[in-house]
Amino acid sequence: MSIRRTAVGRVTVLGAIGGLTGGDETDRLREAILGEAAAGNTLLVLDLSACGKMNSSGISVLVEAYRDYAGRGGEIRLCGLPPRIAKQLATVRIIDFFGRHANVEEALAAFAERAPRT
């Protein structure tokens, strides 16, 4: 698995490529998310469109990320969820913790809509 990082204004987009089933790939995503949080990021998009599978290890990374971001007044939006992963997240009742979008562009637009106007 690899992690693709893009910054769009104050929003960071992390794209997970591969599976989140424990081991190095899951650790890399956790480290990428924690690194963004440590840098002060509060607006995160996780693009899971290229994530083939996820188990409880991957789900625990999402829960940990949610707790961190929510505790700091931040927000995480998921996009590109494959149907199987969306079903898993719904089954364990965490899918509604996150904003969900079809793609990165929609997730970024949702953040732009909630941004304060100056």
Describe what this molecule looks like in 3D.
The radius of gyration is 13 Å and the shape is globular. 32% of the residues are buried. It contains four helices and five strands. The longest helix is centred in the middle third of the chain and has 16 residues, at 56-71. The chain has one domain: Transcription Regulator spoIIAA (2-Layer Sandwich). The chain has 118 residues and is α/β, with parallel strands linked by helices. It has a five-stranded mixed β-sheet, with helices on both faces. It has helices at residues 24-38, 56-71, 83-91, 104-114, and strands at 2-8, 11-20, 43-54, 75-79, 99-101. Helix 1 (24-38) runs parallel beside helix 2.
Number of domains: 1
Extended strand count: 5
The CATH topology label is Transcription Regulator spoIIAA
Provide the gyration radius in Å: 13 Å
CATH class: Alpha Beta
CATH architecture: 2-Layer Sandwich
* CATH homologous superfamily descriptor: STAS domain
Helix content: 40-55%
**Helix and strand succession?**
EEHEHEHEH
SS field, number of helical segments: 4
Sheet with most strands: 5 strands, mixed
**C-alpha geometry:** globular
Strand content bin: 25-35%
Structural class: alpha/beta
Mean pLDDT: 93
Low-confidence stretches: none
Distance between the termini: 40 Å
Kindly report the spatial arrangement of strands forming the biggest sheet.
Answer: 1-2-3-4-5
